[in-house]
Amino acid sequence: MCEGQKKCGLLSVVIPAYNEQEMIEKAAEAVSGVLQEAGIDHELIFVDDGSKDLTWSEICRTAERFRGKRPSAVLRGIRFSRNFGKESAIFAGLEEARGDCCAVMDCDLQHPPETLSQMYQLWQQGYQVIEGVKKSRGKESWFHGACARLFYRLMGQATKMDMSRASDFKLLDRKAVDALLCLKEKNAFFRALSSWIGFQTAQVEFEVGERQGGVSKWSFRGLVSYAFTNLTSFSAAPMQLVTVLGVIVLICSILLGGQSLYKKFTGQALEGFTTVIIILLIIGSILMICLGIIGYYIAQIYEEIKGRPRYIVADRCEEETQKK
Ligand code: UDP
Ligand code: MG
Fold first, then answer.
1. Dist. CA 301–CA 304, nearest whole Å
2. Ligand 1 atom 21: the closest Cα is on which residue?
3. Radius of gyration (Cα) for the chain, nearest Å?
4. pTM of the model
5. 141 DSSP 8-state letter
6. Are 25 and 57 in contact (CB under 8 A)?
7. What is the rounded distance in angstroms from the CA atom of residue 301 to the CA atom of residue 113?
8. Contact, 129 vs 206, CB < 8 A?
9. The pairing of beta strand 166-173 with beta strand 129-134
10. pLDDT digits over 135-167, tens only?
Protein backbone atom coordinates (compact mmCIF):
# COMPACT_ATOMS: atom_id res chain seq x y z
CA MET A 1 0.00 0.00 0.00
CA CYS A 2 2.96 2.30 0.47
CA GLU A 3 4.59 1.83 -2.92
CA GLY A 4 5.51 4.64 -5.19
CA GLN A 5 4.76 8.23 -4.34
CA LYS A 6 1.92 7.41 -2.01
CA LYS A 7 1.91 8.87 1.48
CA CYS A 8 2.18 6.16 4.06
CA GLY A 9 2.39 6.14 7.80
CA LEU A 10 1.43 4.42 10.99
CA LEU A 11 -2.29 3.99 11.60
CA SER A 12 -3.41 3.92 15.24
CA VAL A 13 -6.76 2.27 15.81
CA VAL A 14 -8.48 3.37 19.01
CA ILE A 15 -11.02 0.88 20.35
CA PRO A 16 -13.03 1.80 23.46
CA ALA A 17 -14.24 -1.22 25.36
CA TYR A 18 -16.66 -1.51 28.23
CA ASN A 19 -17.52 -5.00 29.44
CA GLU A 20 -16.42 -6.51 26.13
CA GLN A 21 -14.52 -9.58 27.35
CA GLU A 22 -15.89 -11.70 24.51
CA MET A 23 -14.93 -9.18 21.88
CA ILE A 24 -11.34 -8.10 22.61
CA GLU A 25 -9.56 -10.95 20.91
CA LYS A 26 -12.07 -11.17 18.04
CA ALA A 27 -11.81 -7.43 17.37
CA ALA A 28 -8.01 -7.39 17.60
CA GLU A 29 -7.71 -10.34 15.22
CA ALA A 30 -10.21 -8.97 12.74
CA VAL A 31 -8.80 -5.45 12.62
CA SER A 32 -5.17 -6.45 12.61
CA GLY A 33 -5.86 -9.17 10.02
CA VAL A 34 -7.47 -6.75 7.59
CA LEU A 35 -4.78 -4.10 8.05
CA GLN A 36 -1.95 -6.60 7.70
CA GLU A 37 -3.46 -7.92 4.51
CA ALA A 38 -3.68 -4.39 3.14
CA GLY A 39 -0.05 -3.81 4.13
CA ILE A 40 -0.87 -0.98 6.53
CA ASP A 41 1.46 -0.35 9.44
CA HIS A 42 -0.73 -0.20 12.51
CA GLU A 43 -1.06 -0.18 16.26
CA LEU A 44 -4.18 -1.07 18.21
CA ILE A 45 -5.06 0.84 21.35
CA PHE A 46 -7.71 -0.70 23.54
CA VAL A 47 -9.18 1.54 26.21
CA ASP A 48 -10.88 -0.36 28.99
CA ASP A 49 -13.52 2.06 30.24
CA GLY A 50 -13.66 0.67 33.79
CA SER A 51 -15.16 -2.69 32.81
CA LYS A 52 -16.51 -4.95 35.51
CA ASP A 53 -15.80 -8.18 33.64
CA LEU A 54 -12.56 -9.70 32.37
CA THR A 55 -12.01 -7.12 29.63
CA TRP A 56 -8.74 -5.88 31.08
CA SER A 57 -7.15 -9.31 31.48
CA GLU A 58 -8.33 -10.12 27.94
CA ILE A 59 -6.60 -6.99 26.63
CA CYS A 60 -3.33 -7.88 28.39
CA ARG A 61 -3.55 -11.50 27.27
CA THR A 62 -4.22 -10.51 23.67
CA ALA A 63 -1.32 -8.02 23.77
CA GLU A 64 0.91 -10.84 25.01
CA ARG A 65 -0.33 -13.16 22.26
CA PHE A 66 0.18 -10.51 19.60
CA ARG A 67 3.79 -10.11 20.67
CA GLY A 68 4.45 -13.69 19.68
CA LYS A 69 2.04 -14.15 16.83
CA ARG A 70 1.91 -10.82 15.00
CA PRO A 71 5.28 -9.16 15.45
CA SER A 72 4.37 -6.50 12.88
CA ALA A 73 1.40 -5.27 14.91
CA VAL A 74 1.50 -3.42 18.21
CA LEU A 75 -1.31 -3.75 20.73
CA ARG A 76 -1.47 -1.49 23.74
CA GLY A 77 -4.04 -1.12 26.47
CA ILE A 78 -5.12 1.56 28.91
CA ARG A 79 -7.42 0.90 31.82
CA PHE A 80 -9.55 3.58 33.43
CA SER A 81 -9.99 3.67 37.20
CA ARG A 82 -13.78 3.57 36.66
CA ASN A 83 -16.33 3.98 33.88
CA PHE A 84 -15.85 7.45 32.39
CA GLY A 85 -17.93 6.93 29.23
CA LYS A 86 -17.17 6.24 25.61
CA GLU A 87 -16.20 9.82 24.73
CA SER A 88 -13.53 9.87 27.44
CA ALA A 89 -12.26 6.50 26.25
CA ILE A 90 -11.97 7.80 22.69
CA PHE A 91 -10.04 10.87 23.80
CA ALA A 92 -7.74 8.79 26.00
CA GLY A 93 -6.99 6.55 23.03
CA LEU A 94 -6.29 9.52 20.77
CA GLU A 95 -3.99 10.99 23.40
CA GLU A 96 -2.14 7.71 23.55
CA ALA A 97 -1.92 7.19 19.78
CA ARG A 98 1.41 7.68 18.06
CA GLY A 99 0.21 7.18 14.51
CA ASP A 100 0.35 9.59 11.60
CA CYS A 101 -3.36 8.99 11.41
CA CYS A 102 -5.82 7.57 13.94
CA ALA A 103 -9.03 5.64 13.49
CA VAL A 104 -11.74 5.16 16.09
CA MET A 105 -14.04 2.15 16.00
CA ASP A 106 -16.33 0.14 18.24
CA CYS A 107 -15.19 -3.04 19.87
CA ASP A 108 -18.27 -5.04 18.82
CA LEU A 109 -17.27 -5.06 15.12
CA GLN A 110 -20.42 -3.18 14.15
CA HIS A 111 -17.98 -0.94 12.31
CA PRO A 112 -16.57 -3.22 9.58
CA PRO A 113 -12.73 -3.40 9.75
CA GLU A 114 -12.61 -3.74 5.94
CA THR A 115 -13.75 -0.10 5.66
CA LEU A 116 -10.55 0.94 7.48
CA SER A 117 -8.35 0.25 4.46
CA GLN A 118 -10.73 2.30 2.29
CA MET A 119 -10.46 5.15 4.81
CA TYR A 120 -6.69 4.81 4.87
CA GLN A 121 -6.57 5.13 1.09
CA LEU A 122 -8.55 8.37 1.29
CA TRP A 123 -6.11 9.60 3.92
CA GLN A 124 -3.28 8.78 1.52
CA GLN A 125 -5.02 10.91 -1.08
CA GLY A 126 -4.77 13.87 1.30
CA TYR A 127 -8.07 13.88 3.19
CA GLN A 128 -7.66 14.72 6.85
CA VAL A 129 -11.00 13.70 8.34
CA ILE A 130 -12.60 10.59 6.92
CA GLU A 131 -16.04 9.98 8.36
CA GLY A 132 -17.80 6.67 8.35
CA VAL A 133 -21.47 7.29 7.58
CA LYS A 134 -24.11 4.66 8.17
CA LYS A 135 -25.88 3.33 5.08
CA SER A 136 -28.71 2.35 7.34
CA ARG A 137 -29.02 2.39 11.13
CA GLY A 138 -28.85 -1.38 11.56
CA LYS A 139 -31.38 -3.30 13.59
CA GLU A 140 -33.16 -1.21 16.19
CA SER A 141 -36.64 -0.77 17.54
CA TRP A 142 -39.09 1.71 15.99
CA PHE A 143 -39.09 3.77 19.19
CA HIS A 144 -35.30 3.85 19.42
CA GLY A 145 -35.10 4.91 15.77
CA ALA A 146 -37.65 7.71 16.26
CA CYS A 147 -35.80 9.06 19.33
CA ALA A 148 -32.49 8.90 17.46
CA ARG A 149 -33.99 10.80 14.50
CA LEU A 150 -35.32 13.51 16.83
CA PHE A 151 -31.96 13.82 18.57
CA TYR A 152 -30.02 14.05 15.30
CA ARG A 153 -32.43 16.60 13.86
CA LEU A 154 -31.95 18.83 16.94
CA MET A 155 -28.24 18.14 16.94
CA GLY A 156 -28.07 18.95 13.22
CA GLN A 157 -29.72 22.30 13.86
CA ALA A 158 -27.37 23.02 16.75
CA THR A 159 -24.19 22.15 14.87
CA LYS A 160 -25.37 23.15 11.37
CA MET A 161 -24.16 19.74 10.18
CA ASP A 162 -26.09 16.76 8.96
CA MET A 163 -25.66 14.28 11.78
CA SER A 164 -28.41 11.85 10.85
CA ARG A 165 -26.06 9.17 9.58
CA ALA A 166 -22.98 10.16 11.58
CA SER A 167 -21.09 7.61 13.62
CA ASP A 168 -17.99 7.43 15.80
CA PHE A 169 -16.27 5.41 13.08
CA LYS A 170 -13.69 7.89 11.77
CA LEU A 171 -10.14 8.18 10.60
CA LEU A 172 -8.32 11.41 11.42
CA ASP A 173 -5.02 12.82 10.28
CA ARG A 174 -2.47 13.70 12.98
CA LYS A 175 -3.27 17.41 12.50
CA ALA A 176 -6.97 16.80 13.12
CA VAL A 177 -6.19 14.64 16.17
CA ASP A 178 -3.98 17.36 17.62
CA ALA A 179 -6.69 19.94 16.97
CA LEU A 180 -9.21 17.76 18.81
CA LEU A 181 -6.86 17.19 21.71
CA CYS A 182 -6.42 20.96 22.09
CA LEU A 183 -10.11 21.32 22.92
CA LYS A 184 -10.28 21.57 26.65
CA GLU A 185 -13.99 20.94 27.21
CA LYS A 186 -14.60 18.01 29.48
CA ASN A 187 -17.92 17.20 27.94
CA ALA A 188 -16.54 16.43 24.52
CA PHE A 189 -18.89 14.88 21.94
CA PHE A 190 -16.46 13.22 19.56
CA ARG A 191 -18.93 12.59 16.73
CA ALA A 192 -19.80 16.27 16.38
CA LEU A 193 -16.45 17.79 17.37
CA SER A 194 -14.57 15.81 14.74
CA SER A 195 -16.77 17.50 12.11
CA TRP A 196 -16.69 20.85 13.89
CA ILE A 197 -12.88 21.10 13.63
CA GLY A 198 -13.19 21.25 9.84
CA PHE A 199 -10.25 20.07 7.65
CA GLN A 200 -10.47 18.30 4.29
CA THR A 201 -13.29 15.85 4.86
CA ALA A 202 -14.36 12.75 2.99
CA GLN A 203 -17.12 10.27 3.74
CA VAL A 204 -17.19 6.52 3.44
CA GLU A 205 -20.46 4.64 3.66
CA PHE A 206 -20.63 1.49 5.70
CA GLU A 207 -23.29 -0.97 6.65
CA VAL A 208 -23.78 -1.24 10.44
CA GLY A 209 -23.09 -4.88 11.23
CA GLU A 210 -24.69 -7.03 13.89
CA ARG A 211 -23.03 -6.95 17.29
CA GLN A 212 -20.64 -9.93 17.22
CA GLY A 213 -20.91 -10.77 20.93
CA GLY A 214 -21.99 -9.35 24.29
CA VAL A 215 -24.79 -6.81 24.64
CA SER A 216 -25.25 -3.11 23.89
CA LYS A 217 -24.07 -0.91 26.77
CA TRP A 218 -26.81 1.67 26.46
CA SER A 219 -29.95 1.79 28.54
CA PHE A 220 -32.81 4.05 27.43
CA ARG A 221 -32.13 6.33 30.40
CA GLY A 222 -28.44 6.44 29.53
CA LEU A 223 -29.24 7.41 25.95
CA VAL A 224 -31.61 10.20 26.98
CA SER A 225 -29.03 11.66 29.34
CA TYR A 226 -26.31 11.27 26.66
CA ALA A 227 -28.51 13.04 24.12
CA PHE A 228 -29.37 15.90 26.46
CA THR A 229 -25.79 16.41 27.64
CA ASN A 230 -24.45 16.49 24.10
CA LEU A 231 -27.20 18.74 22.86
CA THR A 232 -26.66 21.27 25.62
CA SER A 233 -22.89 21.11 25.26
CA PHE A 234 -23.26 22.13 21.62
CA SER A 235 -26.15 24.53 21.64
CA ALA A 236 -27.78 27.25 23.70
CA ALA A 237 -31.08 26.69 21.84
CA PRO A 238 -32.85 25.18 24.89
CA MET A 239 -32.04 28.41 26.77
CA GLN A 240 -33.67 30.37 23.96
CA LEU A 241 -36.69 28.14 24.43
CA VAL A 242 -37.04 29.77 27.86
CA THR A 243 -37.39 33.17 26.16
CA VAL A 244 -39.82 31.77 23.58
CA LEU A 245 -41.98 30.26 26.32
CA GLY A 246 -41.85 33.56 28.18
CA VAL A 247 -43.09 35.44 25.11
CA ILE A 248 -45.90 32.92 24.54
CA VAL A 249 -47.02 33.24 28.18
CA LEU A 250 -46.85 37.04 27.89
CA ILE A 251 -49.06 37.07 24.79
CA CYS A 252 -51.57 34.76 26.49
CA SER A 253 -51.50 36.98 29.60
CA ILE A 254 -52.24 40.10 27.55
CA LEU A 255 -55.14 38.39 25.77
CA LEU A 256 -56.60 36.90 28.93
CA GLY A 257 -55.98 40.10 30.90
CA GLY A 258 -57.79 42.12 28.23
CA GLN A 259 -60.70 39.69 28.26
CA SER A 260 -60.92 39.80 32.09
CA LEU A 261 -60.87 43.60 32.14
CA TYR A 262 -63.52 43.75 29.43
CA LYS A 263 -65.73 41.37 31.43
CA LYS A 264 -65.18 43.38 34.61
CA PHE A 265 -66.15 46.69 33.03
CA THR A 266 -69.17 45.23 31.26
CA GLY A 267 -70.34 43.80 34.52
CA GLN A 268 -69.91 40.11 33.63
CA ALA A 269 -68.11 38.47 36.54
CA LEU A 270 -65.72 35.55 35.86
CA GLU A 271 -67.23 32.20 36.67
CA GLY A 272 -65.55 30.04 39.31
CA PHE A 273 -61.95 29.37 40.04
CA THR A 274 -61.30 26.72 37.38
CA THR A 275 -59.75 29.14 34.92
CA VAL A 276 -57.57 30.69 37.59
CA ILE A 277 -56.35 27.30 38.79
CA ILE A 278 -55.57 26.10 35.25
CA ILE A 279 -53.67 29.26 34.39
CA LEU A 280 -51.68 29.06 37.64
CA LEU A 281 -50.78 25.44 36.97
CA ILE A 282 -49.68 26.13 33.40
CA ILE A 283 -47.54 29.11 34.36
CA GLY A 284 -46.11 27.18 37.32
CA SER A 285 -45.10 24.27 35.06
CA ILE A 286 -43.55 26.53 32.45
CA LEU A 287 -41.55 28.31 35.16
CA MET A 288 -40.34 24.99 36.53
CA ILE A 289 -39.30 23.75 33.08
CA CYS A 290 -37.43 27.00 32.43
CA LEU A 291 -35.67 26.81 35.78
CA GLY A 292 -34.75 23.21 34.98
CA ILE A 293 -33.23 24.16 31.64
CA ILE A 294 -31.24 27.02 33.14
CA GLY A 295 -30.22 24.78 36.02
CA TYR A 296 -28.93 22.18 33.55
CA TYR A 297 -26.67 24.73 31.91
CA ILE A 298 -25.43 25.93 35.28
CA ALA A 299 -24.63 22.33 36.17
CA GLN A 300 -22.67 21.99 32.93
CA ILE A 301 -20.74 25.18 33.65
CA TYR A 302 -20.05 23.87 37.16
CA GLU A 303 -18.77 20.57 35.74
CA GLU A 304 -16.49 22.31 33.29
CA ILE A 305 -15.20 24.94 35.72
CA LYS A 306 -14.08 22.33 38.22
CA GLY A 307 -11.50 21.36 35.64
CA ARG A 308 -11.34 17.73 36.63
CA PRO A 309 -9.63 15.44 34.13
CA ARG A 310 -11.72 13.64 31.52
CA TYR A 311 -10.50 10.30 32.82
CA ILE A 312 -8.07 8.68 35.23
CA VAL A 313 -5.76 5.95 34.02
CA ALA A 314 -5.31 3.13 36.49
CA ASP A 315 -3.18 0.75 34.48
CA ARG A 316 -1.44 0.22 31.18
CA CYS A 317 -0.20 -2.73 29.24
CA GLU A 318 2.45 -1.73 26.80
CA GLU A 319 4.31 -3.40 24.08
CA GLU A 320 7.38 -1.35 23.47
CA THR A 321 9.12 -3.60 21.01
CA GLN A 322 8.90 -1.62 17.82
CA LYS A 323 8.02 1.55 15.97
CA LYS A 324 9.00 4.96 17.21
N1 UDP B 1 -18.45 1.85 25.38
C2 UDP B 1 -17.52 2.44 26.24
N3 UDP B 1 -17.98 2.99 27.40
C4 UDP B 1 -19.29 3.00 27.75
C5 UDP B 1 -20.22 2.44 26.85
C6 UDP B 1 -19.76 1.88 25.67
O7 UDP B 1 -16.32 2.45 25.97
O8 UDP B 1 -19.62 3.52 28.82
C9 UDP B 1 -17.94 1.25 24.12
C10 UDP B 1 -18.37 -0.18 23.89
O11 UDP B 1 -17.50 -1.10 24.50
C12 UDP B 1 -18.32 -0.29 22.38
C13 UDP B 1 -18.73 1.11 21.93
O14 UDP B 1 -18.52 1.96 23.05
O15 UDP B 1 -17.02 -0.55 21.91
C16 UDP B 1 -20.16 1.16 21.46
O17 UDP B 1 -21.01 0.65 22.46
P18 UDP B 1 -22.29 -0.24 22.15
O19 UDP B 1 -21.96 -1.24 21.10
O20 UDP B 1 -22.79 -0.76 23.44
O21 UDP B 1 -23.25 0.86 21.57
P22 UDP B 1 -24.30 0.70 20.37
O23 UDP B 1 -23.54 0.08 19.21
O24 UDP B 1 -25.38 -0.16 20.88
O25 UDP B 1 -24.69 2.12 20.08
MG1 MG C 1 -22.47 -1.50 19.16
1. 5
2. 216
3. 25
4. 0.80
5. -
6. no
7. 38
8. no
9. antiparallel
10. 876 667 788 778 888 888 887 777 777 777 788
